[in-house]
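Pipeline run #58 for the internal structure catalog. This entry was flagged by the ingest filter as a single-chain record with no existing model, so it goes straight to prediction. Upstream metadata was stripped on purpose; only the residue string is passed forward. Reviewer on rotation: M.T. Logging verbosity set to normal.
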Amino acid sequence: MVVAHHRTDSLTRHTADRAAARLETAGYRIDLLDLHTEGFDPRMNVADQPDWGNREKTYSDEVRAHMQRIVDADVVVAVFPVYWQSVPALLKGWIDRVWNYGFAYGRSRPRLTGKRMLWLGLAGATADDPVVEGMHSILETNLSEGIAYYCGFSRSTVGLLTDAEERPQRLDAEGNLLVGEAVTGAEREAQYAALDRRAREFVDRFAAE
C-alpha cells in the first residue's frame, strides 16, 4: 500500500487506511509504504540513474530495499491526490527511481510479471464535471498502459475518486474554474461517506478479480 501525500491527516491517507483494512479483511497482509513519512526522496540521482549498457547495475541501498518490497508483494495499491491529471511528484519520483531499468523493465520476462496494481486517485472535480471522463482516460493510459503493463503487471485498474474537495470544483464551458461554497454538516458527512463507499467498491472489486 503506497501512500503519496505529505500529511498523515489527509483524505488520501484516510482512504489508504480504509483500503488497507478492507484488503486485510479479504485475507491480505499489508506492507504500508508512506513515502513522505519514510522520507523518500523523489529526485533522481547518479546512484539510481539507469545505465542503458548495464541492466545488472546495482542501485542504491534505499532503492534496492524498495525493490524488494515490491517483489515481496502480490498486489501493489497506490493512493494519491490527482495533480494536473497525473500523480504527484512524490509518487512519480518513486516510480522513476525504484521501477528502474533491469528491475521493472528491460528484460524479456519482467520481474514484476503476474502482479496486480490498483491506483486510487482522489480528484477535486465533481462527478458530473465533463473533465472527469478525460481525466480517467489519461490516468488509465499513463498508469496502466504506460507503467504497469509495460512492467509486466497482469492487471492494472485506475479508480478515480471524485468530489474529494469540500469546496466543489468544476470547469465552465469557457474553461474557467468555478469553486463553490464549502459543504458543511450533514451534506459534508454524506459527501465523504459516498467517497468512502466508492473507494471500498473499487477495492472489493479488485480483490475479487
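catalog note: Residues 47 and 61 are 10 Å apart (CA to CA).
catalog note: DSSP finds five helices and seven strands in the chain.
status: ready for reviewer M.T.
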